[in-house]
Amino acid sequence: MNKDQLQYLNGNYPPYVDITENLPLGAYFAKSIADLAQLETYRPLANKAYAEGKWTVNDMILHMSDTERVFQYRAVLFARNDKSRVPGFDQEVWAPAGKANQRSFDSLVAEFRLVKQNTQFLFSTFDDEALMRSNIFWKWEIPVLAIGYTIVGHQQHHLNILAERYKPLL
Predict the structure, then answer these.
(1) What integer pLDDT is reported at residue 142 of this predicted model?
(2) Could you give the angle at which helices 105-124 and 25-34 cross, rounded to 10 degrees?
(3) Is the whole model's pTM more than 0.85, yes or no?
(4) Structural domains in the chain?
(5) What is the rounded CA–CA span in Å between residue 69 and residue 162?
(6) Where is the DinB-like domain (predicted)?
(7) Distance CA 17, CA 29 (A)
């Protein structure tokens, strides 16, 4: 399935969906894994932030992994037709607790690659019926398919931040 299926649902989705292309979701996950090669550019800045009080590159990579895991859980919950309310999470609490700057850049990228591969595999197991099941995702009621596009859009959002705010520091 691809993003144009979401238009028929007349939903209001997270802004990350808006920045995605209309590729089939499976192809988009493959692209998002390939896009991880862009992270290598930022190796010299691994423990650097672009401004006081902002996350380092390592913090951002761990944030993307952590967030994707939370989104995976929401996706499997919704796909299995569980209508439980899922609490949010506070990224500002998670980031320092993750201690990303005590880890190597390589370990963070390797972990994120595995998370991405796991996401791709998880979504490949969902049939069209499961992809259209929905539940409350923070403040939106969205189908599993929209969670998939939120995942790739979230990654793209952070790759854009790296390019705009960190690349000038190289």
Answers:
(1) 87
(2) 170
(3) yes
(4) 15-169 (1.20.120.450)
(5) 21
(6) 46-161
(7) 14
